[in-house]
Design goal:
single chain; mainly alpha; Rna Polymerase Sigma Factor, Chain: A; Arc Repressor Mutant, subunit A; 2 domains; elongated
C-alpha cells in the first residue's frame, strides 16, 4: 500500500509546486480511474469524473485533515461524483440495454430462462429488462447505491462497505431490502 501523503507534500502542492502535483496525480490517477470505471462502466465518463475529482481534490486539499488515508479521501470524492453523475443521467443511460442485461439487470429473468430464445422471447426479455431497470431507478437511494455497486459494477460486499463507509452487515441488509423492494414493485407493475 502507498504511504499517506505527508503534510510537507500537501504544502508543496498547495504552494503551486507543479512537479509535486504532477507526481501526486500520476501516482493516484489509475486507482481513481479504476474506481470510477467500475461504478460507471463507461470509459469517457470515468475519465471525466477523474478529471473533475482532481479539480476538487486540488481545491479542497487544504481541508484534508490526515484523519484517514489520502486514498480513502480521494476515493470518497470520486464515489460522490459518480453518484452525482448517475443521478444526473437517470433519463439517459450511457450503455445499451444489452450491456446492462449482461451486467446485472437480468438477474430476475435469468432464473426463468431455459436456454435457447426465440426472437419473440428476446423482445419480451428486452422489455422485461427495461422494466427492471426502471424499477432499479425508482429504488430509495440507500438501496439503489448499494444495488448499483453490487449488480451493475460487480463490487464485492467488502468493496461496497469500504466505498460507502458502512459495515458489511449493513451492505448485506440493504441488498436484501433492495431485492425485496424490487420483487414487490415487479409484482405490482
Amino acid at each position: 500500500m502507498k504511504p499517506n501523503i505527508t503534510h510537507e507534500q500537501v504544502l508543496r502542492i498547495l504552494s503551486g509546486d507543479q512537479v509535486a502535483f504532477t507526481a501526486f496525480y500520476e501516482e493516484n490517477r489509475d486507482m481513481l480511474y479504476y474506481q470510477a470505471y467500475r461504478f460507471l462502466k463507461h470509459r469517457e465518463d470515468a475519465e471525466d469524473v477523474v478529471q473533475e475529482a482532481y479539480i476538487r481534490i486540488y481545491l479542497n486539499l487544504h481541508t484534508y485533515n490526515f484523519s484517514c488515508r489520502i486514498n480513502t479521501w480521494m476515493k470518497r470524492i470520486v464515489k460522490n461524483l459518480c453518484i452525482d453523475r448517475v443521478r444526473r443521467n437517470k433519463s439517459k443511460p450511457h450503455y445499451s440495454i444489452d450491456e446492462q442485461n449482461s451486467e446485472g439487470s437480468n438477474f430476475i429473468l435469468e432464473t426463468l430462462s431455459d436456454g435457447e430464445k426465440t426472437p419473440d422471447q428476446q423482445v419480451v426479455d428486452n422489455e422485461e429488462s427495461k422494466r427492471v431497470l426502471h424499477l432499479v431507478k425508482t429504488m430509495p437511494d440507500q438501496y439503489k447505491n448499494v444495488f448499483l455497486l453490487r449488480f451493475f459494477s460487480d463490487y464485492s460486499l467488502i468493496e461496497i462497505a469500504d466505498n460507502l463507509s458502512m459495515e458489511v452487515n449493513t451492505v448485506k441488509s440493504r441488498i436484501f431490502r433492495g431485492r425485496a423492494y424490487l420483487r414487490r414493485k415487479y409484482r405490482v407493475s
